[in-house]
Write a structure and sequence with these properties.
170 residues; Porin; Outer membrane protein beta-barrel domain-containing protein; OMP/PagP_B-barrel
Length: 170
């Protein structure tokens, strides 16, 4: 009897977990939050260093289209910092690429980003800052290991050429 009950519980859990991964549709009202670290770097200052931190939030406005905000920061060990903030939009390719895996989300997009740099070289006494608006771009993928929690990898412009982190779907 215990084996039958245990088998019934396991089968129920598997069925529940399998059914909880509905088709990963990106429709009006879908919400995604990415938060991660930047790997590699140019960060506007021209050399690698420091740890980049970034986040983006997007909301579905139409089938397979999201828009939202992005922000990032990177500090360069006493030499300065780089930051960016702006808006962006993404197109989600699962439907057009016929990707049937409901845990995967492939996307790419563009944004309008304000980036600022500050230098503070204490060795030579040089201090300056600069900022400006530019075009940003990104290509990314998310893998959801739970219906609302996953991991993402994103390549693009900003504080690092590659960002890795957690992704949340609301």
């Amino acid at each position: 009897m215990k084996k039958f009950f245990a088998s019934l519980v396991i089968a129920s859990l598997l069925l529940t977990c399998t059914q909880s991964f509905a088709q990963l549709d990106v429709d009006k009202g879908s919400k995604f939050l990415n938060a991660g670290i930047g790997l590699g770097g140019w960060g506007g200052i021209g050399y690698a260093g420091g740890l980049g931190l970034g986040a983006s939030f997007e909301v579905g406005v139409a089938k397979n289209i999201t828009v939202g905000a992005v922000g990032a920061f990177r500090s360069y060990s006493g030499f300065g910092s780089y930051y960016s903030i702006g808006g962006r939009g993404s197109y989600h390719f699962n439907e057009i690429l016929s990707i049937s895996d409901d845990k995967v989300d492939l996307y790419a997009g563009l944004g309008l980003i304000y980036s600022g740099w500050s230098w503070n070289d204490t060795y030579v006494g040089f201090r300056n800052s600069y900022g400006g608006i530019g075009l940003g771009g990104h290509v990314g993928a998310r893998y959801f290991f739970k219906p609302a929690l996953g991991a993402f990898a994103e390549a693009g412009f900003g504080v690092a050429p590659l960002q890795l982190g957690l992704s949340f779907k609301f």
